[in-house]
Design goal:
With 116 residues, the protein is α+β, with helices and mostly antiparallel strands. The chain has a domain of 62 residues: Ybab, Chain: A, CATH 3.30.1310. It is 47% helix and 16% strand. The chain has 2 helices and 3 strands; from the N terminus they run αβββα. The protein has a 3-stranded antiparallel sheet with strand order 1-2-3. α1 packs antiparallel against α2. It is rod-shaped, with a radius of gyration of 23 Å.
Length: 116
């Protein structure tokens, strides 16, 4: 009995459809990355004394400091508030990016690839 090949490639995968799906996913990811540059998250620290805006591509766009937060006797507190606000902004922007990208890459399991 002659050994036959499965149509469409190893394991019965339609390689053409697989490549098309991968190319579409790549295009969707590139579009999402561009869109993330325009999305901005807000974060604050010190009860709003320090406010930060961070874009979805993790660029700190703005830092606003309430003049009441500026105490020459306690510069360390202001530094801590700025650091906390920036870190919270980056965390929130990363979370938004992961959520957006996860919607695109979440379909990988449907490709039937081992380990996906």
């Amino acid at each position: 009995m002659a050994r036959g090949r499965m149509p469409g490639g190893p394991g019965g995968l339609d390689m053409g459809a697989l490549m098309k799906q991968a190319q579409q996913m790549q295009a969707d990811m590139a579009k999402a990355q561009e869109e993330l540059k325009d999305e901005v998250v807000d974060a604050s620290a010190g009860g709003g004394m320090v406010k930060v805006k961070v874009s979805g591509d993790l660029v700190v766009r703005e830092i606003a400091i309430d003049p009441d937060a500026v105490d020459p006797e306690d510069v360390e507190m202001l530094q801590d508030m700025v650091l906390a606000a920036v870190n919270e902004g980056i965390r929130a922007a990363q979370e938004r990016a992961e959520s957006k990208m996860g919607g695109i890459t979440g379909g990988l399991g449907g490709l039937g690839l081992p380990g996906m």
